[in-house]
Task: structure prediction
Amino acid sequence: MDIYNNILTALSNKEKLLAVLIDPDKMELTSLSGFIKNVNKTIATHIFVGGSIVEDYIMDDFVAEIKKHTTLPIIIFPGDVSQITNQANAILFLSLISGRNPEYLIDKQIQAVSKLKDSNLEVIPTGYILIENGKETSVQRVSKTKPLDRNNVQLIADTAKAGEYLGKKLIYLEAGSGAKHAISSEIILKVKQNLNVPLIVGGGIRTKEQLEAAFNSGADLVVIGTAFEDDANFFKQLIKT
Result:
């Protein structure tokens, strides 16, 4: 399964992609089957798995259980090296390019190499940009980095372009789990205008209108997590027609 090229193909066909983010710390293993059945009914195209603080060594069983109930590609969205599992199809090889903590710019990535080189995972280099959303996020606490000011649109766009120049195959704009403010249309539009690689947007999207606004502004793939966790009815808004 060539995840990255499939993303490129979808985008060349003007398709918009939606990933449902599942945080193992926020969902019991026993709840997965029902949750994934609901996901399968929606327009979701990918499943992301991971979180900022996930209990060590639960990912194998967690992802294996997801695979029992869906054919959607499963991508690790790792908060730490311990979240790597060969049960998934791919991993976003994240570098937190909005921060200046070397642990999340390169140190964690080096620690991951021994696991990844012997795995079957497709490794997708991803520039990860945390944007201030009105409250402190778990990513901010764990990484000990400051998010970029959401009002400094030019800095955000330049950071994204720098990630592309560094060779990142994806750029991920993140407001954070449970964000008060989703990434604005102004930011998405400005970043996308300057970018030649696919753009992922996540954090704070809780309505179909916000999802459509992100797509219309230039997001190629939108990630939604908290909205599905907090409101089961949100699934109904995104049912496949």
In short: The chain has a mean pLDDT of 94. The beta strands are 17-22, 46-49, 74-76, 90-96, 122-130, 170-174, 199-202, 221-224.
